[in-house]
Amino acid sequence: MTPKLPKSQNPHSMDDTDKSSSERIPLSRPWLGELEAEAVRRVLLSGWLIQGPATKKFEDAMTRFMGAKTAVAVASGTAALHLALIALEIGPGDEVILPSHSFVATANTVVYVGATPVYIDIDPKTYNMNPDLLESVITPKTRAICVVHQSGLPADMDKILKVAEKHSISVYEDAACALGSKYGDSQIGTISKLSCFSFHPRKIITTGEGGMITTDSEDLADKLRILRQQGMTKDAATRAGLDGPLKTSDFKTKFPVIGFNYRMTDISAAVGLAQLRRLPVILESRKELAEVYAEQLAQVPHIVPPFVPDGVTHNYQSYVVRIKPESKRTRDEVLRFLKERKIDGGPGITCIHRQAPYKPYMRTPLKESESATDETILLPFFPQMSREQVGYIAHTLRLAVTGKS
Ligand SMILES: Cc1ncc(COP(=O)(O)O)c(C=O)c1O
Predict the structure, then answer these.
(1) CA 20 to 30 Å from 68, out of 96, 218, 276, 331?
(2) Whose CA is nearest to atom 10 of ligand 1?
(3) pTM for this one?
(4) Which CATH number is correct for 280-402, 3.90.1150.10, 3.40.50.620, 3.40.1190.10, 3.40.50.2000?
């Protein structure tokens, strides 16, 4: 089947951002338009701006989309990870296993709760944690495994959950990049105890800043709701009677724990709701774009395109390509070559253990993580891209790796 790009005729697109082909091609671009602008306008005119009816609708729409029992909206993906760790009662003296090959928030949140990050190396094909190494990094202090679905590609959940169960360790997911990705028939967000999503503009849908935690446990969801609102048992919307007729208990607020202000605003939630309406089209467009890339990159030597194992659905939050040693230009030279030709590629995902605060946590060699960071590039990837833009990128990449100018 010949993929059909772009989707500008799609009635859901309503995209009024300029995408003229003579411009720079950015690494990513959120898909926003009148739908989101109108949703924000309605919230502003309603006079209720903080966590309230729109946030509740956004949470309900997320649970319907993925088939999760409960969703708790928060201020960011980082806030989601932080609260997940507190809800799991992870703290000082505990160890949390995580891939170093990730965004630094994965480790920051572990340190926020006073626990110790323990790095695990990755599989060089998927760039996700290598579950065969798990037992070698588990110690009597290990309390949790943080699974990162890097760039939106689901990690090997069966193997990870099996080891976790054997050692009675909790599993939570840094699913910041993985909205709409699937493991078998299951949406990411419905598999482990807690899954944490981000709605940063580089993610599949955006609310500006924003995050969400999905869980099947009502107990965990209750804890998360209290923690996100300063430890308060009743939120402002309930106390204002927005959730229905007021009971005396609704305005007798208690603070049983010390919480945070990690609330999402209704302005952000309204954007999120509009974005969720677009999500099926966004996911379909990303799938088609990946097919166009695969077809065009087949003509480019000295690179390794993304690998997708059987049984998973990739949302291509990032499109990761490895530059082989045979390339006539180094990875950094390739990036510069692309930039000089108005293509904003990005360097590979960070190695957290190489950052100053995280060097002391180093225990075992992380050879595959380091190679992936040093040898990969992220290519521009967003649903509004045209077939011509992908063709131009593939042509330019071919020139870069074959040493032609
Ligand atoms: C893997 C990963 N984890 C966590 C985060 C943090 O999300 P946020 O920026 O919404 O706090 C991000 C992205 O920014 C991410 O890519």
Answers:
(1) 96
(2) 77
(3) 0.94
(4) 3.90.1150.10
